Amino acid sequence: MQINDKSGLTPYLPSADRYTNMHFRRCGNSGIQLPALSLGLWHNFGSVDSLLNAKRIVRTAFDAGVTHFDLANNYGPSFGSAEENFGHILKDDLVHYRDELFISTKAGYDMWPGPYGYGGSRKYLVSSLDQSLQRLGLEYVDVFYHHCPDIATPLEETARALDYIVRSGRALYVGLSNYNDEQTKNMAKLLDDLGTPCLIQQSRYSMFDRNVEEKLLDKVQQKGIGFIAFSPLAQGLLTDRYLTNIPEGSRASKGMTYLGKNEVTALQPKIIALNEIAQRRGQSLSQMALSWLLKDQRVSSVLIGASSPEQLEHNLHCLNDLHFDESELNIIKAVLMG
To answer: Which of 73, 250, 257, 291 is in the most buried spot, having the most CB atoms within 10 Å?
Structure first.
């Protein structure tokens, strides 16, 4: 991939050997295989970000065999802008490779004002997906997720809306995000009865957030549902950014909702200890954190973000070593429980 200083990027030709080094995993009991690492567009793809940089990241991902790109209606900022920018990239670079791509989007959280701009109602979910498809410039997405449970809407209504979305051709599959094990079990039963089974469950999972290990991972395996982890690096905690301090410009330094300075300070001893283990393995901390998730075959794929093509390439190297011996696992467990 060459950069033209005058016009940005030269016309894109994907790497001919793009699938050589990527690992693919079966998604539950379905016929779908997902790349071990998928690209999430939660950050760095919005209207406040560089479209040129976003395009370079997507090109780098596809060249490496990353076929799954994950979005949501409110990714940005501003809301909808990540889908809009990804739509431009699809049109410019990847329109001829649509059948090699697995594209997902979601709805559930706040999207527009008023009572119909959030939740789990048929009105909101269908309207939101129609808007997403328009921004993406697509006739369908491969997976449409209900982004979060809505206790104010009957599960039956949400399930029927998801079933309708597939039957209407707007999505090939449906998934659930941020549902706990009981909610997942109940919704999966409703979807099965309607004839539109849940393909995949997406939840937060990292070394520092292991709640899904209690029940959810076993539940999705029993139901034949795939599982995809998001926030695998715990908002940057599982990287080398916070080994010594809180650097200026980092998420924690900006006082963002999802990562506070106190949380970083409290976890710093564990971050340092885990980094030492990673170095002994010949990996960076972020690479080891991703490998640690992928050691579990119940994990169909791990969603990673990227602020640059170089960062993406670095983390893709985790695929070179997904093995942990028993002593390594015991040492990591001791650190995490300490």
So the answer is: 73
C-alpha to C-alpha distance for 216 and 233, rounded to whole angstroms: 20
Contact 145, 175 (CB under 8 A): yes
Going by their DSSP bridges, the two strands 198-204 and 226-230 should be labelled as parallel
**Inter-residue contact 114 to 79 (CB < 8 Å):** no
In whole angstroms, how far apart are CA 280 and each of 95, 274, 285, 328? Answer: 43, 10, 10, 10
Q: Is residue 227 within a helix (H) or strand (E), and if so which, with residue range?
A: strand 226-230
Quickly state the pLDDT bin for 254 (edges 50, 70, 90).
low
pLDDT tens per residue across span 22-80:
999 999 999 999 999 999 999 999 999 999 999 999 999 999 999 999 999 999 999 99
* Radius of gyration (C-alpha) of the chain in whole angstroms: 20
3-class DSSP assignment, residue 305: coil
Phi then psi for residue 66, to 5 deg, are: -75, 110
Q: Which two tokens stand for residue 214?
A: 């209690």
Asked whether the beta carbons of 57 and 44 are under 8 A apart, the reply is yes
Strands 226-230 and 68-70, sheet pairing: unpaired
Q: Which residues have CB under 8 Å from 222's CB, separation 6+?
A: none
Query: Mean per-residue pLDDT for 187-216?
Result: 98
pTM of the model: 0.94
Name the CATH topology of 22-235+293-321: TIM Barrel (3.20.20)
Instruction: Break the chain into its structural domains and give their ranges.
Output: 22-235+293-321
- CA-based torsion, 139, 158, 111, 44: positive or negative: negative
DSSP code, position 161: H
H helical segments located in the chain: 51-63, 81-89, 122-136, 155-167, 181-194, 216-223, 261-281, 285-294, 309-316, 326-337
Neighbours of 131 (CB within 10 A): 17
